[in-house]
Amino acid sequence: MTERITRSTGRSRLATRLASLLLPATLLTACAVPPQQPSQPPPVIGGEVAPQGSPQQQALRAMAAAQNRIDRVAAPLLVNNAALCKAHARKLLGFSAKNKYSYSPDLADVVQQTFGYGERLQVASVLAGSGAERVGVLRGDILIAAEDKEIPPGEDAERQAAAVLAPLVRGRSLIKLTVERKDIRTSLVVPLTQSCGFSIDLGNADHVNAYADGRRIVITRGLLDFARSDQELAYVIAREMAHNILGHTAKQRMSATMGGIIDNLIRFTPDLDTMTGRSGITPYPAELDAEADRLGLYLAARAGYDIHNAAAFWRGLAERYPVSVANGYTAIHPSSETRLAAIEKTATEIRAKKAAKRALTP
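^ that's the sequence the OP posted. Answer follows.
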């Protein structure tokens, strides 16, 4: 789960590497929204109006609120579908960790002022339902060591933490973690959590789209705004997870193209001039889209989301942003009628399995 603004594509890849060990999605390490204009209302975080600050602080807070929503919705999808994620299932510690250097270098001071991050990596978010949550890892805990191996502070902390954690996670079910909380050091034995190992981030763009490159997912700010409820957002995330699980970007030979788009959108200042038209993406054929809709609906149902309104949501998206909107979601998923038929059929199938108390396995 992610709380991030990356300083460069290289930095974002380091963050993704650390995220793959800690959480399937990095909280606030990926993307930012542009500074809000004075005429707009102040950002709301946790149900409260955030205090006003500099434009950079406002942007950070607004982005954090958006990413927090993604993380909250994604958590049950990731944790409850490890069995269907196949090669993408991972054992994870179940939290994200950031320091002030996880952001653009020129934002280090404002990041510290806004979120309190310092030199050492600090827990930014805990995955709901994870072993970390069960044993009491808390947001704000400062990471000191894992299995008595120091987690170094400083500008290179994310890379060094990944180097420490990677060999420990392999072949273990528990990790002893030393944290500092209110100036007191304590040890917690964290059960590793089996989860889908996808990074799911906010894309810094207003066009209405989502992208998956086989291991990562980006939901643009425009699509996040279109999805009015968490349930609707779950439909989008689950469907992109399905594309990754089914290897569709590789089948389409679009992994590099999608990867480049994601690298761009998770930057602090993406190059939106490259996001015209379909950005080089070949539209998905009807059969692949129908596969993704089928599996995505199962992923959502297994995570506890109500799939009753899925067809209405996708129909509304296609009507609002039809194929003629070249940088919209429907442009790269043009087979709307085939998709809707697959969704209706699968929803009926899932309801029948629930009624018969059968396993929700596609």
